[in-house]
Amino acid sequence: MDDIRIQIVNFKTKRYLLECLASVAEDLKSFSDKYSVAILDNASGDDLSDLSSQFPQLKIEIHQTEKNLGFGAGHNLLAKQGEAQWLLLLNPDMRFIQPETIRRLICCARDSQADVVGPRLQTEQGTTQWWDHGELHGLRAWVALNSGNSFWQERKELTSVAWVSGAVFLISKDKFDWLGGFDEQFFLYKEEEELCWRFRATGGKVVYDPTITVFHHGGVVAKKSECIEKSVAYFLEEHFKNRRSYPLLKILNRMMH
């Protein structure tokens, strides 16, 4: 069994994927534990047959689908193909920019006794991507969470959060399997938020560590506007719209944010 299984779902993003894998290979040079790297080509038409020769040290598994399954279903498929203590889900448009990032993410999980960990995501301008986590504590966060939304603020230190971005998402594989993986009704966006919502409902701990920084382009697979409306509608229908307090909290959230 691997200590960590690194998974990437590709859809017409090979140009970014090459940069991503180069940074993964560099980061793993000092990694002494056992790992595997699995890539799913989500019926994108990209030719990934040369990846194994370009990155022989990674011993990449390449899987293909006949149709685009989306983000969550794609990672569910990859997770079923191997066994590991940890899963590290990566978007193809991310790049490690600090040494030993993978080792530090695992150490963060162990030290904080969390089963889900996410790092700070950095933009091309060097700023923090405001969607890299959702706040858990405070009035504004409480109102947002209980109306099916999210509240973000800049953080400098490790903190428990409601969710972390799926762009770089470390999770215990036992917990991932126990939860049944991602809800495949989500095609793209909010699936990691919903998974963390279910995980926290069972007493699970999600942490965000902004001392670990990863570069992320963001939005290269599809425009957020093309998928987010359907994802939000499904999330609300499944978990919030039957709550009596939902209409009032929705109004309060709009006023506060």
Automatic annotation (TrEMBL):
For this protein, the record's CDD domains field holds:
GT_2_like_c
Highest taxon listed in the record's lineage: Bacteria
Cite a single Pfam family from the UniProt record. Answer: Glycos_transf_2
Q: Which residues form the Glycosyltransferase 2-like domain?
A: 8-159
Molecular functions per Gene Ontology? transferase activity
Q: Is the keyword Transferase in the record?
A: yes
Q: Could you tell me which InterPro entries the record lists for this protein?
A: Glyco_trans_2-like, Nucleotide-diphossugar_trans
| Presence of the UniProt keyword Transferase in the record | yes
Q: Which UniProt keywords apply?
A: Transferase
Q: Which SUPFAM superfamilies match?
A: Nucleotide-diphospho-sugar transferases
Q: What is this protein called?
A: Glycosyl transferase group 2 family protein
